What does this fold into?
Amino acid sequence: MKMRRIGCAAMGVLLALGIASWVASSQVVIHEIAWAGTGAAASDEWIELHNPSEIDVDLAGWALVIGDVTIPLGSVEGATIEVRRTIIEAGGYFLLERTDDATVSDVEADILYKGGLSNDGEDVVLLDADGETVDAARFAEVGWPAGTASDGEPRYASMERVRSDSAEWRTNDGSTRNGLDAAGEPIHGTPGRENAATIWAASAPRVAFVAPSDETASIGELYEIEWAATDPDDVPDALAVNLFYSIDGGETWVELATNLANTGGFLWDTATLLDGADVVLRIVIEDPDGHASEAVSGVLRVERESD
It folds into this structure.
């Protein structure tokens, strides 16, 4: 027997691993996208919507648009094969499965649709009954920021939204999962449940650069790097804080300092760097539970004073 879901509101924050175009809305968001399918079949794609609000929402007249494909959420037309329900309850989830209901074999689909998602990225747009954009994940040009295909780890993992009120995405961790694929194997995703990314984010430490504060900046031979880090579920000063720099745009990283204070500064002597070099800083923090986050600075140009 297939399960009908009653969900709960998303919570928490996380370092952004991908940012989409986002339209603020208190009702219904694009919540999870299995753009590469499942381990049973690459064509077994599914998409989940989430209603984080405190009222039920009727999706009749709404549509989900993927590129030039339109999936009406309340009627059998366009790319919609079957409509099982149109109401997404407060705090609930709404599952769209491609082609048939075996894609997530133990969770009943709300919509069956036709048409596939490109592994190179798509623009996915949610429209209300007036044709207004409620939410959008636009990745046609830049590619999917999260999720995996057959060569990923874990394989065929979904792309999960970290928080309903932001545009941050993260790959399912392969541990917090829900649902079985067409072969009866666990799906690396959470269709019909709170996202693994959201659960993880509730305990994840956070870090941000205080200086540099701009996207780009010039630095001399001595430069004071400053940051602030916090941990929502542990002793604040128990974080491991490590600092790195890169002179090749982030392709490789050189360790600059380790075991730094959670909030503080580091006086960086850039004498070993060439005048005119472009540098990027990266700070990585980890809490005692093994949760890690990082922040990356904008480009810093090393400029020596003329004699």
About this structure: The chain has two domains: 1-202, 206-302.
